[in-house]
Automatic annotation (TrEMBL):
Any Gene Ontology biological process: plasma membrane copper ion transport
Species of the source: Portibacter lacus
PROSITE patterns xref list: PROKAR_LIPOPROTEIN
UniProt family annotation: Belongs to the membrane fusion protein (MFP) (TC 8.A.1) family.
Name recorded for this polypeptide: Multidrug resistance protein MdtA-like barrel-sandwich hybrid domain-containing protein
């Protein structure tokens, strides 16, 4: 199609020159071309090539700030799973990418110390009743002066020591997931069950079966993507233009044609070493399954809206950083004459280009096909 347009244009120009010079000489040709600053199209050429005329018109534009960033998950929606006691990892019941619910067993860990702690708890539990009775007896004997104060203090010390040990062991075992209220000599456990602290997807597993895990060493990570937000970086010079609840649109690197909508929720007022500030944005319909944490995003933050004179994008051609349009000089039944005109432009949005200079509103431009004439 492009080849056809260029050919038709060339033919039209040749027809024009021939019509203006019935018996042209080289001198006549040079004079004619010097005087003719425009390009002429015959009416049939204009119609057959589907060219179209149009005028400058009012269009809506927006002032925007460009920003880049990525999708992320709030820290409260992520968890690193570890254990309070060292031990050997037993069965692992999950795989990466699997959804787990809060409280679901993830893996087990074995340590002989678990059995010793349960044993010590049961011994302390059985001693408490005796020590409490002995302490009460010493109080009665002391009242009747039948025992020494030293015996009373000893009974009191033994009771309080055992109570403290019993209470500490109860809390530790409860932290390890062992119900001390139901613990008996016949219900001792040798493994601990490690449960999911939150619901979410398993994003990473470091642990393997048979591995020795130290206390607080990360075994795996869980992320709940039910609330994904957008973290953007904005230039320092644009910081004062930002405010909470400002709307913005963004696209993802893997799908630049799909636009998502968000609003600014938090603005970090500190400037980093790159002279940028970060902003936290809430995404409309963040439950969209196509959104994945870590995706790179390009965003446009809406600062202002205004109306301005504009031409369609197809009406202007950029050459050497200058925009040109084909302005209609005159027309009659035979054809049309266009002048190539440089035009000062502004924003380019939604298929239109803002015209920054004053133009006669009645002037017509070639709004479809200018590319094939401006060469």
């Amino acid at each position: 199609m492009a080849y056809t347009y260029k050919l038709n244009t060339a033919l039209a120009f040749i027809i024009l020159v021939s019509a203006c010079n019935q018996n042209p000489t080289d001198t006549d040709m040079e004079e004619t071309m010097a005087e003719t600053t425009g390009i002429t199209l015959e009416k049939k050429q204009f119609d057959s090539s589907k060219f179209k005329l149009g005028k400058v018109e009012e269009q809506d534009f927006t002032k925007i700030i460009n920003a880049t960033g990525s999708l992320d998950i709030p820290e409260k929606n992520t968890a690193a799973v570890s254990t309070l006691m060292s031990g050997t990892i037993g069965s692992i019941n999950i795989i990466e990418g699997e959804w787990v619910r809060k409280g679901q067993q993830l893996f087990t860990i074995t340590n002989p110390e678990i059995i010793n702690m349960q044993e010590e708890f049961l011994i302390a539990d059985s001693q408490l009743e005796y020590l409490q009775e002995e302490y009460n007896r010493q109080i009665d004997l002391q009242r009747e002066n039948l025992s020494t104060k030293k015996d009373l203090l000893k009974a009191k010390s033994e009771l309080h020591t055992t109570q403290a040990k019993h209470g500490a062991l109860r809390k530790k075992l409860n932290l390890y997931g062992i119900n001390t209220n139901q613990l008996t000599i016949n219900s001792l456990v040798s493994t601990l069950k490690v449960a999911a602290p939150i619901s979410g997807y398993i994003t990473h597993i470091d642990a393997i079966q048979g591995m020795f895990l130290e206390p607080n060493e990360t075994a795996l990570k869980i992320a709940n993507a039910s609330h994904i937000h957008l973290e953007l970086s904005v230039l320092e010079k644009d910081a004062l233009l930002l405010k909470k609840e400002q709307p913005l649109t963004f696209t993802l690197q893997g799908n630049p044609d799909k636009k998502y909508h968000a609003t600014i929720h938090l603005i970090n007022r500190s400037i980093n070493e790159k002279h940028m500030i970060t902003i936290h944005c809430h995404i409309e319909d963040d439950s969209n399954q196509s959104l994945v944490p870590g995706m790179y995003a390009n965003a446009e933050i809406l600062i202002d809206e205004y109306r301005a004179k504009a031409l369609p994008e197809d009406a202007l051609v950029k050459m050497n950083e200058v925009y040109y349009g084909m302005m209609l000089r005159s027309q009659d039944d035979a054809g049309m004459i266009f002048d190539k005109k440089s035009i000062e432009v502004g924003a380019q949005q939604n298929g239109f280009i803002e015209i920054k200079e004053a133009l006669d509103p009645e002037i017509e431009f070639l709004i479809n096909g200018a590319y094939y004439l401006i060469q």
